[in-house]
Amino acid sequence: MNMTPNNQAMMQRDLAVLWHPCTQMKDHETLPLIPIRRGQGVWLEDFDGRQYLDAISSWWVNLFGHANPRITAALQQQLQTLDHVLLAGFSHAPAIELAERLIQLAPPGLQRVFYADNGSSAIEVALKMSYHYWRNSGRPDKSRFITLANSYHGETLGALAVGNVALYRDTYGPLLMPTLTAPSPDCYHRAPGETWYDYSLRRLADMEQLLEQHHHAVAAVIIEPLVQCAGNMRMYDPVYLTRLRQACDRYQVHLIADEIAVGFGRTGTMFACEQGGITPDFLCLAKGLTGGCLPLSATLTTDTIYQAFYDDYQNLTAFLHSHSYTGHPLGCSAALATLDIFAGDQVLSRNAALAQVMRSATAHLADHPHVAEVRQHGMILAIEMVQDKQTRTPYPWQQRRGLRVYRHALQQGVLLRPLGDVIYFMPPYVITPEQITMLARVTTEGIELATRD
Ligand SMILES: *Cc1c(COP(=O)(O)O)cnc(C)c1O
Hints:
By secondary structure, this protein is of the alpha/beta class. Helices cover about 35% and strands about 15% of the residues.
């Protein structure tokens, strides 16, 4: 056969055998699946030769463009040296060097790195370690977790249990461990005229109450610092981090910071925790860690935690958790190349300028009759469509207005993937001001179309 593969042919082959993530497969009876044959910088190219600007960094992972030459070169080098080796009883240079550099970059006091191979696993590691720490310290009663409403921490059962987005969670409710839930500091719900700062503080009072009541039974509080990404890109003020850290110390409860989505410069600082001036007891990293090209995750923790596991083997205090590809050499090499780019290219100050461009390019949307809010933390900007601007009444979800924006954007050569009716930009950091302007134009048109009737 000499059929050149095009979109149609690839889609047919795909739909005959694949089951896609986070997808109602029946949607593809009417919604074309887009097979991609090449990625370069911010662009993805399909099998018909059409190009799409990847405005969501391929699910929030890509930092410096697809096929970044510096990351690719590091991978080629590594592949010729060592493909993979187990990390129990053995070690390798990329894992060691990456751990050293992560510890240097992370908030002070995080001194140990435990690798896994995806974000959900990093969360499982933090949850298990926290509980296990208390158990090793003679406090097995501290076995519960406090989570925030509207939070998301991944899809494996432990991570899903501490998440709070109903769409993903509710179906599996009977399988999930019970948790305690504090109201989210999500500032979308602030009163008219109230500042982000004041609202976030007001919600902290609820968290403090929960801690006061339950701290004897609580191992850790788990949060997404500053932005609840999967929870519709809802945002809050750094003061919440500062005060939550103090409260956790007061009540002897660990703080787990899930920076899987917001780490590595997304919110303006290398890690979002820096804006609250805090060091969590556990810092979970994945997604952008490898620049977005390979799966790898890391859970960073303190020496205090580490020491509670360090003992004679017979005492059975070790953390006996592993994944086959823990600390994969290729992933670690990609991560090192990614950190080199951060070290050499003044990424954060460049991002500050790009974030400003995103802000001004979308400012006009705040006045749109069906936009409740345009909000931003650094390189994440979100636009929330509503049916009624005054009362912030959402459109009935069944209408899937965000999907209309998605379709329009695709036709215009832009990959947006709204969360419900929330359209957001979370682009690779190599996007240009001109591309941001284009993105804003396509988004404005998309919102017009989606809210017309
Ligand atoms: C994506 C994400 C996860 C899960 O990471 P996976 O690699 O998809 O398992 C956990 N927490 C947050 C905040 C995320 O955005």
